[in-house]
Every structure is written in structure tokens, then in C-alpha cells.
């Protein structure tokens, strides 16, 4: 029983390493070789028993390091295979377009056409079902990271210098707006792509806390859904502008037609519905909940990344 358990643990560890970046296994190989060859013998030089053990392990340093290098090769091959699969799935046949057109070439073509930076996780080729006009349904379909980027690009189209925060904990700030050349943000933006759901007063109150900490007197809260009456009252009293999905649609439609079209091409490039991993930035996958639990989005790099998101619910 104990032997079987140890075998399973070893297999799980190996599988985890194969799923991890190949550079990790290379680093472990180097550490193992140096440790067994030189570090360990130097540490136990005063203990005859341990010295003998270290002397026996030192000649095997290359063997142990070789195991990690072999795992590194497997991880490298697995990474490349995944990239090839993603590239193949990005192809769209017919209409005079080579069905083997890679996703990166598509990104370059779209960038040249729209004049906007295309999201790095836009890996699918253009499809026949792409929205031709802006609608409230489209705004509510956009996944959370793309929604942030679309909001940021909207401000850029208005001539306002802006930047999104990096992946990971954002401190309650998704976008910073700059009205001058001082380098300090003059306004901040929080974004929530919650479909049709209502945003209550709690997230808006938290945004006020961020404003106080950052010493910023003006903020915007943008959502694809709606706001509760309590959230509206609180925002009005604290210099926070609330922009719901319907208002954002109206703002986009007021843009000059070329700017609106460019923003639409940016918003719908590739897979704009599947949420991105908040930690890795890669597209997530749908996972069936077990034991009566709800389905959820899980990172495709699991178990190296265990990030998960709840499935979006309609309001």
C-alpha cells in the first residue's frame, strides 16, 4: 500500500513538472548536479558516515540531473505541441483565405487594418459570425480582460492617455487616465464585465477607498450590466461616475464611424468570449462541477496554475 502511494506521488510530481515551464526542470537539473557533486560533500566533511554517503552520491550527480533534463525535454515538446494545436484551431477555411493562416499573421493583418493593438490572447481567425455592429448583447458577451482593454481603447480614441494595470492583484484600479504630462494619474477606472448583473454599493464603496489611498478626486466605474439605486446614490455623493452597459454603448455610438469600427474590430478579434486567466493571461476552459457544485472556468495550465473563475450568471 505504501509503495503504491509513493509511486502515485512520484508520477504526480513528474506530471506536474512536465506541465510546468521547461526552464524549471533545467534549473532543477543544474541545482541537483551542483548540489550532489560539490555542495553536499563540502557540508558533511566532518561526519564520516555522511561523508561516505555523499561520496557515493557524487558520481551519480549526472544521472539525477539527466532525469530532470529528460523531463525538461518532455515539457518543451508538450509546450510546442500545444502552440501548434492552438495555431491550427485558429485557422478559418475558405473565402480565399489559406486555412492554415496562423493566428499571429491574423493579428498582424487586423492591427494594420484597425490601427489598434490587438490583444495577445486573440488567437482565433475571423469567423462568419462576427458582430457587424455594436449592441448591448455584444458588450455583455465580452470577457472581463477584453472588456477592460476595450474601455481603455475607448479613452485612447477620445485622445485621453490611458493605461491598463498588469495581470494579478490590481489594487482596485483597472485603468489609469492621464490628463497632463506630470506622469501621475488624474483619474482611475474600475471595470466589471458582469453580463447583465447589477453592481451593488459595495464595489463602488471600495473604489472610493482606492481614490482616498491614491489621492485622486475623480473616478469612473464601468460595467456591462447595471447599478443598484444605492450604488447610484453613493457614487453621486463621492465624485464617482457610473457607466453602465447601455450608457457605454451610447458613448461608443457617438464616436466617429471609423473610430467605432476600429474599436469593434479590436473588441471582437479572436476569442473574445472565453475569460482569460487572471494570473497567466491564457484562455481558460470550462470545467464541470462535481458533487452538485457549479461549473466553473479553470486555467488551462492546471496544475501549474490553479486559478479559477465562476461561470457568469445573468441578472
Outline of this structure?
By secondary structure, the protein is an alpha/beta fold. It has eleven helices and ten strands.
Describe the structure.
The protein is of the alpha/beta class. 49% of the residues lie in helices and 12% in strands. It has a five-stranded mixed beta sheet with strand order 1-2-3-5-7, sandwiched between helices. A hairpin with an 8-residue loop joins strand 9 and strand 10. Helix 1 (2-19) crosses helix 4 (61-89) and helix 8 runs parallel beside helix 9 (229-236).
For the largest beta-sheet, the strand count, sense and barrel status come to: 5 strands, mixed
Counting helices, strands and paired strands, the structural category is alpha/beta
Portion in strands: 5-15%
As laid out across the biggest beta sheet, the strand order is 1-2-3-5-7
CATH class wording of the largest domain: Alpha Beta
Number of helices: 11
Tell me the radius of gyration: 26 Å
Number of strands: 10
The CA-CA distance between the termini, in Å, is 51 Å
Helix and strand pattern: HHHHHHHEEEEHEEHEHHEEE
At CATH's second level, what is the architecture of the largest domain?
A: 3-Layer(aba) Sandwich
Using brief descriptors, characterize the structure shown:
Trna Endonuclease, Chain: A, domain 1, 315 residues, 3 domains, 10 strands, 3-stranded antiparallel β-sheet, alpha/beta
Topology readout:
Layout: H1 2-19, H2 22-43, H3 48-57, H4 61-89, H5 103-114, H6 136-141, H7 144-157, E1 161-164, E2 175-178, E3 187-192, E4 198-199, H8 201-214, E5 219-223, E6 226-227, H9 229-236, E7 240-243, H10 245-253, H11 257-267, E8 284-287, E9 296-299, E10 308-310
Parallel strand pairs: 3-5, 4-6, 5-7
Antiparallel strand pairs: 1-2, 2-3, 8-9, 9-10
Amino acid at each position: 500500500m505504501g509503495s503504491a502511494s509513493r509511486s502515485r506521488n512520484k508520477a504526480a510530481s513528474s506530471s506536474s513538472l512536465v506541465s510546468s515551464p521547461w526552464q524549471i526542470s533545467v534549473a532543477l537539473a543544474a541545482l541537483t548536479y551542483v548540489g550532489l557533486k560539490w555542495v553536499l560533500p563540502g557540508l558533511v566533511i566532518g561526519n564520516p558516515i555522511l561523508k561516505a554517503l555523499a561520496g557515493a552520491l557524487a558520481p551519480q550527480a549526472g544521472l539525477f540531473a539527466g532525469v530532470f533534463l529528460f523531463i525538461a525535454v518532455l515539457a518543451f515538446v508538450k509546450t510546442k505541441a500545444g502552440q501548434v494545436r492552438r495555431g491550427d484551431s485558429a485557422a478559418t477555411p475558405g473565402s480565399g483565405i489559406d486555412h492554415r493562416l496562423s493566428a499571429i499573421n491574423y493579428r498582424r493583418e487586423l492591427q494594420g487594418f484597425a490601427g489598434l493593438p490587438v490583444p495577445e490572447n486573440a488567437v482565433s481567425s475571423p469567423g462568419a459570425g462576427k458582430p457587424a455592429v455594436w449592441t448591448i448583447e455584444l458588450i455583455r458577451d465580452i470577457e472581463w480582460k477584453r472588456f477592460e482593454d476595450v474601455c481603455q481603447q475607448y479613452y485612447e480614441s477620445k485622445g485621453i492617455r490611458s493605461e491598463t494595470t498588469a495581470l494579478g492583484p490590481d489594487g482596485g484600479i483597472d485603468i489609469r487616465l492621464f490628463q497632463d504630462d506630470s506622469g501621475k494619474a488624474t483619474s482611475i477606472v474600475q471595470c466589471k464585465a458582469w453580463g447583465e448583473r447589477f453592481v451593488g454599493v459595495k464595489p463602488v464603496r471600495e473604489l472610493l477607498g482606492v481614490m482616498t489611498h491614491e489621492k485622486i478626486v475623480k473616478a469612473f466605474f464601468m460595467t456591462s450590466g447595471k447599478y443598484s439605486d444605492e450604488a447610484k446614490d453613493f457614487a453621486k455623493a463621492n465624485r464617482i461616475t457610473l457607466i453602465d452597459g447601455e450608457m457605454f454603448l451610447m458613448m461608443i455610438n457617438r464616436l466617429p464611424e471609423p473610430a467605432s469600427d476600429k474599436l469593434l474590430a479590436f473588441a471582437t478579434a479572436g476569442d473574445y468570449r472565453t475569460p482569460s486567466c487572471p494570473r497567466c493571461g491564457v484562455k481558460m476552459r470550462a470545467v464541470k462541477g462535481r458533487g452538485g457544485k457549479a461549473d466553473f472556468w479553470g486555467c488551462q495550465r492546471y496544475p501549474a496554475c490553479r486559478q479559477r473563475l465562476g461561470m457568469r450568471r445573468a441578472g
